[in-house]
């Protein structure tokens, strides 16, 4: 039986059993404070310096925040208001778009935990939209008008990040253009207040499947990343940390395809979402990824320049997605399929 979306109005005084994670997968007692994301100013004049900053953040963390990104504040505000209004619609309006078909767009659904075969749910509802906007829900009335300028501006910011990442890696500026970045989608995520955030997650640990993800959120405190102790962060081992971004900034992270194309020089960032007891959180994640038939492989220039063999074998992005879904997005399992 399909679960009822959380935003449909049911009041939960406790966490229903289907949302409760096994003890070792719960978020309680696993966070070691907050962490300030590296800040990259995309509005600067020195592209070489900006490229170095992007590659440094990608190598050490896979996460950073961008300011002066070119997405107007009023465009961001209109898009967030429309997103919040969608989840506040009456249930019958939202359920017109409800589907468990992962290929359908637009698609409204509640979040099933993948990779286990168990009926354990994450504390999240989601509206999936195609980035090329062939269709969107007709309510709320301002959604379509907000989506077009927001999507165009965010994808332009993502393209600038990809061009600068290419420069910082020593590749041609256009390396990521064309079919390698021709696909994409937007997840509009909604995390209602949770009666006991210690027992469940909004989204489980995963790396994003594409090249780069650009995130906007209405309130902070939900995104966490797995911080590795082998970078400038210091310390040893790994720990989950809360990720904070400045007001008006966009959060950027690299996905599996960037790690492969860079031959391991840039990190695909593992992250998750936790829930909160008091306030609902809404976030918009815009994914840029290859077209399904695109062949993905380490850049030859990087392999030859380093005098090392490719760490990953070539594959089509469609093949990768089948693996990603089958493995539930679990980083180690997915990467094991890609390595030589």
Automatic annotation (TrEMBL):
Gene Ontology molecular functions: metal ion binding; oxidoreductase activity
Pfam family, one: DIOX_N
Keyword Coiled coil set for record: no
Entry keyword annotation includes ATP-binding: no
Keywords in alphabetical order: Iron, Metal-binding, Oxidoreductase
Fe2OG dioxygenase domain segment(s): 181-292
Entry cofactors: Fe cation
Protein family (similarity comment): Belongs to the iron/ascorbate-dependent oxidoreductase family.
Protein name per the record: Fe2OG dioxygenase domain-containing protein
């Amino acid at each position: 039986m399909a679960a009822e979306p959380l935003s449909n109005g049911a009041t939960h005084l406790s966490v229903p059993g289907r949302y409760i994670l096994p003890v070792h997968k719960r978020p309680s007692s696993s966070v070691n404070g907050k962490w300030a994301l590296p800040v990259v100013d995309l509005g600067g004049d020195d592209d070489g310096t900006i490229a170095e900053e992007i590659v440094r953040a990608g190598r050490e963390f896979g996460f950073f925040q961008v300011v002066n990104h070119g997405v107007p504040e009023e465009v961001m505000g209109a898009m967030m208001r429309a997103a919040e209004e969608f989840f506040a619609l009456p249930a019958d309006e939202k359920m017109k778009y409800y589907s468990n078909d992962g290929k359908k767009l637009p698609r409204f659904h509640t979040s099933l935990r993948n990779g286990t075969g168990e009926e354990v749910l994450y504390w999240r509802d989601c509206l999936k939209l195609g980035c090329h906007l062939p269709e969107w829900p007709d309510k709320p009335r301002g959604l379509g008008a907000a989506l077009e300028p927001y999507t165009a501006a965010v994808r332009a910011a993502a393209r600038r990040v990809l061009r600068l990442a290419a420069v910082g890696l020593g590749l041609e500026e256009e390396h990521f253009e064309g079919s390698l970045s021709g696909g994409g989608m937007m997840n509009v995520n909604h995390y209602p207040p949770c009666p006991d955030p210690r027992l469940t997650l909004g989204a489980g640990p995963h790396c994003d499947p594409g090249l780069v993800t650009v995130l906007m959120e209405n309130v902070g405190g939900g995104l966490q990343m797995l911080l590795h102790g082998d970078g400038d962060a210091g310390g040893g081992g790994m720990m989950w940390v809360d990720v904070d971004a400045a007001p008006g900034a966009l959060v950027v992270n690299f996905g599996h395809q960037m790690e492969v194309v860079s031959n391991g020089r840039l990190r695909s960032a593992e992250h998750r979402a936790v829930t909160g007891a008091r306030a609902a959180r809404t976030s918009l994640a815009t994914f840029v990824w290859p077209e399904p038939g695109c062949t993905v492989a380490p850049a030859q220039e990087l392999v030859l320049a380093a005098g090392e063999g490719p760490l990953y074998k070539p594959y089509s992005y469609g093949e990768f997605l089948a693996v990603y879904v089958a493995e539930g997005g679990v980083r180690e399992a997915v990467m094991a399929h890609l390595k030589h």
